[in-house]
Queue: 4 jobs
Job 1
Amino acid sequence: MKIRGIACSMPSRRVSNEEVIELVRESSSARLSARQLDQVAARMRSLFRVSGSKYRHWREEGELARDFALRAAEEALEKAELSPGDIDLLLYVGVGRGWVEPGMSHYFTHALGLANATCFDLLDACLSWLRALHVAHQFLRSGVYRNIMVLNAEFHQAYDGWSISDPDELEYRFAQSTIGECATATILSKGEGGEEPYFEFRTDASLHTLCKIPLPNIAQYSEAERCPTLDPLVFFAYSADLFRAARRMIVAHYRGSHELRRRGYDIVFAHSASRSLADWIANEIGADGRSVNVFEEFGNTVSASIPAAMCWAIERGRLKRGMRMLHVMGSAGFSVGFAHMVY
């Protein structure tokens, strides 16, 4: 399998940490005292320093998520030197979406004029893009499809509840303040020999309560949620516990995998949930300055984080054809994933 074309489309509005803090202060002013608001601001500044967050990109008023996804898809087609009719399958992998049913893939298949394509959604939180590459590899290797587009549109302001009623809520509300917005499109085709892509995944499902975007009927499906405020469609994440799980599972899995350690790599792309965490993991697996970390500029762009970082690296000459890539991902659930492939 080869990546035939990859593109990223991101809003131009660059939002600083202080702008997010002010948004939280304004949204919470009716619930918190002036002293509590100062406590929240101080705590957020401290957490931003620890995580390495500086900026994230959000839409301007009137900008629509779908337009960024369509722009990324059209650019990826151009880079792949393919027409819409050449795509056989579209996999939509974004957590960002406008409805639950049918799959968002149906809208984008229609909007892009992919007349010969079938489609479906693949959803596994931030890990969705990497899961889709694994699925696409199996389809391409078996000859079921020739050209597959993997598309996401991670635009999450609608999932953010900025108003808090107690400073302690930052334990599970802070993560939303690092989320950035982005769409990416990746076009995959059958490879032409050489080293085959390789994937490994592992899950500790007991940690599913650490991070969610609840629906109104969550109580019908789960009897023991940890978060005390399960506001419908408001994202929450216990970041400290998630990062402890990532450190434990990612490093242990990599060190325990003979195949991953056997395969050499030229560049590493890790999920951007925290600059300090990504740097720590890169050091533990011996990346030796070969990792790409764009968290300071783009924040956590959910399932778009690795393809967005790849586009950034391509533009700056850090990622070139023929380079061996190691992809490392930790994701709500809690799952970890690795991929090794040649660009």
Note: The mean pLDDT is 95.
Job 2
Amino acid sequence: MTRFIHDQFAKDYLEQLLSPYGEVQAPRRVSVEMRQIDVWFSPNSQQSTAASESLGLLGIFAANPSIFEPFRNPATSNQICDCLLKLLEIRGELQREANRNNTNIQESVLPQLWILTPTESDAILFGFGAIIDDGWLPGVYLMPEYLRTGIVVIHQLPRTPETLWLRILGKGNVQKQAIDEIIALSADNPLRYNAIKLLYNLRKNLQINDIPEEEEDRELIMRLAPLYEQDREQAIQQGIQQGERRIVENLLRIRFGSLDEQLAAIIPSILALPPEEFTAMLLQLSREELLARFGESL
């Protein structure tokens, strides 16, 4: 089922985003009945501020030990109960370790559970006592304090840069809008690169199924297709440019024995010419003539 493909994408995506800021285990096994936590995150204390600045709301969640349980479709009451059971089993592990060491369990090591769901019914939110807190953005519902659990209804999050890295895990138009926002980021943004790479993998995995199960999966494949082609063409062009630069550098070394600072400085100006023109010049002109010809544009 394509749901499992989306689940794996969500795990890979969260692991890729969070790994610079702490230790990620995706999945993490829990001893009882070999349960698995989708994503376990333990932050580096030095990186907490950097995470919130880079990842917005997701980075704020990651300021403390966290369990992330993403769902492609709305989480059912049984699925939420299963997530809570994992959280309590982890708490039990930590308590047993503290008992063995004859110490008190530290509040700072207790994880917070974040259930990421595209939508959720009012009945389920009410049933778990999950309510909006004034200190959080719309879409973040907190259960009673000692449960240390939040339900993040992705489609209710405001469309702001702060929520972008969570909205990519939504569905339909919410996910499409987030993809558009990621594309609009600066090309040298490392988060953009990682997200697009994972989206490529998602597209490839969805296409392995001849007929995706959901119409929105077919739409997602179509939405990612031009992005793939655009980035492929850009990669090809970058490869051509890098190849031309290596040719110029090698010709300069062959002609003049080395590539010093003066010669290196005129390479961008040389590359502005078509290859057939700069090749002839590099073979014919002297060092002084090249510096005079291309040094004027520096």
Note: The beta strands are 22-25, 28-30, 35-37, 39-43, 66-70, 112-117, 131-132, 140-142, 149-153.
Job 3
Amino acid sequence: MRLWTLHPGYLDPQGLVALWREALLARAVLRGVTLGYRYHPQLERFREQSAARTAINAYLAAVFAEAESRGYRFDYRKVGPVRKRMRIIATKGQLDYEWRHLLRKLQKRSPALYRRWHGEPSVKAHPLFSIVKGPIAEWERLV
């Protein structure tokens, strides 16, 4: 499971569809309706929120918006209510790590997107996240 801190606009089609499915799985875990992935480290930052379900719904809403802008037909009814605007703190170290990780994936899977994004001077975060100085997150499993 990878719930990217990066803006979903950087993902290739396979990555965006995978993110949608993985975020829906994360939502199911946070709602307590599935037994798998209950202890996955990617969920820690959502569980730390006072409204974990609202946070994952907000995450999904932004993924949906990106998919819709590309003409994909994801089902918005699966997002769930987004009751308030919220932000989750993430670190620049985490964002940078994920950027390098994504570029490695794109180099193999989507060379045209790799060429487009390689050398990008400033990387945007997913709209749910506010980026602050700091290292890679403790929950991250380095690959």
Note: The helical segments are 13-31, 44-47, 52-69, 92-109, 111-117.
Job 4
Amino acid sequence: MTTPLHRGLRHLALRVLDLPRSRRFYEQLLGFQSVWEPDPENIYFSSGVDNLALHQISKTELDSYDASKTQLLDHMGVILDSPQAVDQLYQHIVPKITPMGGRITKEPKQHRDGSYSFYFADPDGNQIQALYEPTISGLKWVNSKG
């Protein structure tokens, strides 16, 4: 097997209908801990090994929300070891993504919380964030094969 290009799907972002209700659910039921709250519409959690972002659906979208026509998944994320690894994956993906039916949706960017990422879409439009996230990128993963 070749060296993996990332460290796994350790980041998930969900759009939610009621942020306080969803916060209680993930904190009280699943034990997630808040690691960053940049504003009243967003909260970022960690389980210690994973990162979960909850994004409040805007008032405009909420007024016309129809569960049968709208997906709540905002994006999924693959974790990388460093900002340099994010840039390396970006350079790896750029020449290959368009012929495979995908596209780059956001260029590499440094975020306010110290993370660094870029976004790309699969052929069905699902957003994927290639992410260096300081609280989990440096964790050592247990190999399930021993």
Note: The mean pLDDT is 87.
